[in-house]
Specification:
Helix 6 packs antiparallel against helix 7 and helix 7 (129-140) runs parallel beside helix 9. By secondary structure, the chain is an alpha+beta fold. It is built from 22 helices and 19 strands.
């Protein structure tokens, strides 16, 4: 019997993501089966397919040169789309995504397994599919203890790995439910252990707990109590107490330790656990009703002092003994007072706190001889008392400002003015980072290039990267002289053409007279970054890190470079080879011949994506560093140069011809420095210091050029 079912068709296919085609096709096939359209004729199924894909689907089908007869055959049309999308699939990229997929924070094991199955479908692993899934699953899970256990199983299969991981996660979740409100959350799959509670009267350190069988508030025998002088277990002979000859560091009297001193109230409390030590806040005995509040504990009114710096709630033994039928257990934290002396914690219990219409359950700690009950931040927040604290602070500040108006009038501006006029403050002050200046996209490939030297395993390499396509050239160097670097660059320029601009750092290879003559003879502009400011040559510096990571892997250098050059950049979907040559490179992975054909119709789209990418980069950088523009420095200004080991004085001669870059005269010579390295020295009347005037042109001496040519000095 036929059933009328109205189902929503799958959404339009996004042609910007061809790798999603298999998933979309499966969804569409399910839609045909669910609605009964799979029993209809081919013409209707083809029409439904093109309608669901959108207008671009019909254009793509036409571009495949399908005949009018085949256009009416559903299976043939599907095969045409399969062929169209298959040639655009980058297996290297898909495998990289799969092999970099780790279990995310908060992601369940089942969700992680499902994500891996979705990614592996596009990797073309063939018979190795299950093994690759097993390996990725084992090394990618968050629980490293389980990962190590699985790696030690010689007969481990994919199904066995999934079963072990699922069972471990299920056990952890069950333990969390059973131990809710008693134990800390189980953050890792292997955290399911819980120490049993002890039932004893006295610990090794003299802290006391009531037995579980004791229903009232009876005191322990005197022999089980701690000494009032040293805090250790009771001495049968008082003259044997080690504190008799000690001097208290608080009241400076003899006869007891500072931890047992009664002349001062506790000024602060800390908590120590196995993992960390936490400062709780201030506890005083001064009568200050501003910060006190009456809260019901176990249905009994108790006066607390609110302390937003405390993470636990603490009551005295006197209050505890007044509570009806409350059992103490071993404390999970250790409390410390002033000078880190340990407090006499009798134990803890789970208490019910009530204020108004709000109720909160929390572990309450009992401290012997505590003078002020302390209400911690968790209770303050849950009982909605934080608003009262804010109102109290606001009222207090208003009273102070009314009584001492002159103290606060213009105080911020006054402090800022003093700091700005302080020479020593300027010497050691730090700058805010300035907003990111992004590099404009060149008009064509190899118009602007960046170059740098780097070292891996005592071997030096030269990198040259195109600013347009991000296409890298890497060469191993026999030496680091200017001659060697120039010869390699000539080889690259003979293949890609001579660039208009070459960017580099101030390494000796690039600062030599020989390199200056090379730039002149080959007619390109050589721009160097500000010394000790590699960010201004960011494209090359970033590419160096990428290439270093590639070369450290167990893979041949040239195959690694081929893989990078043929992998699409994530932000634009085009590979460096396509942007540089207008075509894809042939790799060891089979590809259709049509893919190798050069095409440039995507150029305008690439420029727009590059513009958006740089805009996003700048936004993220400026937001992360809270950047702020620094004022320009006039010529003749006295500055501290902060890039050296110790700040040195100098005089700004001129701009260095680049954004935020200056030529600075110092007693030892001229330096080229970025604005972030310079701090203006406040001018003081009658104390202006002048250096001998020098020419603003930086001269490279013969001796320096010779040193650079021999490769001595630091390698960039």
């Amino acid at each position: 019997m036929a059933t009328n079912i109205t189902l929503k068709p799958p959404g339009r296919f996004d042609f910007r993501h061809p790798d999603e085609w298999p998933k979309w096709k499966r969804r569409f096939t399910q839609y045909l089966a669910a609605t009964g359209l799979d029993q209809e004729g081919d013409v209707r199924k083809v029409s439904t397919l093109l309608y669901c894909m959108g207008e671009e689907g019909d254009d793509v089908l036409t571009s495949t040169n399908i005949s009018a007869a085949n256009r009416k055959k559903f299976d043939t049309v599907l095969n045409k789309f399969d062929s169209f999308f298959d040639v655009r699939e980058n297996v290297i990229y898909e495998r990289a995504k799969f092999n970099q997929r780790n279990q995310a924070e908060g992601e369940s094991a089942e969700q992680y397994i499902t994500a891996l199955y979705s990614l592996v479908d596009n990797c073309n692993y063939g018979a190795l599919k299950e093994e690759m899934l097993r390996d990725r699953l084992v090394v990618g899970i968050k629980d490293k203890t389980m990962s190590q256990k699985l790696q030690m199983m010689a007969d481990l299969t994919l199904e066995k790995a999934k079963k072990e991981i699922r069972q471990k996660e299920a056990v952890c979740e069950q333990q969390q439910e059973l131990q809710a409100g008693v134990n800390k959350p189980c953050n890792n799959l292997d955290e399911v252990k819980q120490k049993p509670q002890s039932r004893y009267k006295i610990s090794k350190r003299g802290q006391h707990y009531k037995p579980q069988s004791n229903g009232g508030g009876a005191r322990l025998p005197k022999q089980s109590q701690a000494s009032m002088r040293c805090g250790k277990p009771y001495h049968s002979a008082p003259n044997k107490c080690p504190a008799l000859s000690s001097t208290c560091f608080k009241c400076h009297r003899k006869g007891h330790y500072g931890s047992q001193c009664k002349s001062k109230t506790m000024a602060e409390v800390e908590v120590s656990t196995d993992e960390e030590e936490i400062f709780l806040g201030a506890v005083t005995s001064k009568k200050d009703n501003t910060w006190t509040v009456t809260v019901q504990l176990q249905q009994k009114d108790i006066q607390f002092k609110m302390d937003t710096g405390a993470e636990v709630t603490v009551i005295s033994d006197k209050v505890y003994n007044s509570l009806p039928e409350v059992q103490l257990s071993k404390p999970t934290k250790t409390l410390y007072g002033p000078a880190r002396q340990k407090l006499d914690v009798m134990g803890q219990f789970t208490g019910i706190l009530t204020h108004g219409n709000h109720t909160h359950s929390e572990n309450i700690f009992v401290v012997r001889d505590l003078q002020t009950n302390l209400l911690g931040l968790p209770s303050i927040t849950s009982l909605q008392l934080i608003q009262r604290i804010d109102a109290t602070l606001s009222e207090t500040m208003t009273i102070i400002q009314e009584q001492f108006p002159k103290v606060f009038t213009g105080i911020s501006q006054h402090i800022a003015q003093i700091v700005q006029q302080c020479v020593e403050c300027a010497k050691y002050a730090t700058h805010n980072k300035e907003p990111l200046i992004t590099t404009q996209l060149p008009e064509y490939p190899w118009q602007i290039v960046g170059t740098d030297l780097f070292e891996i395993d005592k071997t030096y390499y030269l990198l040259i990267v195109d600013y347009f396509s991000r296409y890298p050239e890497v060469f191993q160097l026999k030496s680091t002289t200017s001659t060697m670097v120039i010869n390699v660059m000539k080889q690259v320029f003979s293949r890609h053409g001579i660039p208009e601009i070459v960017r580099s750092d101030n390494g000796p290879q690039y600062a030599s007279l020989e390199f200056a003559e090379f730039s002149s003879s080959y007619d390109f502009q050589h721009i160097t970054s500000s010394p000790k400011y590699p960010q201004s040559n960011g494209e090359a510096e970033r590419m160096v890190q990428t290439i270093k990571r590639m070369l450290k892997k167990p893979q041949e250098m040239y195959m690694a470079l081929l893989s990078y050059r043929s992998t699409p950049l994530p932000w634009c979907g085009l590979s460096p080879a396509e942007l540089c040559m207008g075509r894809r490179l042939r790799t060891s992975i089979p590809q259709a011949t049509k893919q190798m054909m050069p095409e440039w119709q995507y150029l305008e789209e690439f420029r727009e994506k590059n513009k958006e990418y740089k805009k996003t980069q700048k936004h993220n950088f400026d937001k992360r560093h809270r950047t702020r523009d620094l004022p320009e420095i006039p010529e003749g200004s006295q500055v501290w140069i902060k890039s050296e080991k110790q700040p040195i004085e100098g005089t700004v001669l001129s701009s260095a011809g680049q954004p935020r870059s200056y030529v600075v005269d110092t007693p030892t010579g001229q330096l080229h420095r970025n604005r972030s390295h310079l701090k203006i020295i406040p001018q003081q009347s009658g104390k202006q210091k002048k250096h001998p005037k020098r020419t603003s042109k930086v001269i490279i001496t013969r001796s320096r050029a010779k040193q650079a040519d021999t490769g001595k000095g630091d390698v960039a």
